[in-house]
Write a structure and sequence with these properties.
Helices cover 58% and strands 6% of the residues. It has 7 helices and 2 strands, in the order αααβααβαα. The protein has a two-stranded parallel ribbon with strand order 1-2. α2 crosses α5. The longest helix is centred in the middle third of the chain and has 17 residues. It is globular, with a radius of gyration of 18 Å.
Amino acid sequence: FLTHRLRAHYDLAQHPTSVVQDRSVYEDAEIFAQNLYIQGHIQRRDYKTYRDLYETTMQFLPPPDLVVYLRASVPTLMKRISSRGRAYEQTISPEYLLGLNDLYEQWIDNFILCPVLAVPADDLDFVSHPGHLRLITQKVEDKLTGKEEVVFEPEEVARAAED
């Protein structure tokens, strides 16, 4: 799996135009492989070999311009899995998704290779609503072109005035 993701990452980096990748080599290593190791499906020695190869290869691959992280709660994920109707996904448990979400949050909190756009996705359905996709697309374009609006909550402004 790692070899496939590394090759895909390299190929995309060589592409002359913009590309969008659904799942990255970073997620494979930092979330899915780690989760398999935590669950005991990968032996310690094999996981160490995987990590060593991943970390060495990362030194040579160019980072993406932007990571878009669609943050969704477990109930939202369960609902979307159910609505897709893919037989092989129907046995995914909420506990499994919670573990993945925890690993995603840890990863995204520590990811520094490029800017990250975290999108709260519980209330967005960009598959059914083209307007939701346009909202996300606009935020991606803004982030890539350096346009970003800062929004402060009134409580934040009041606390900062007290300092």
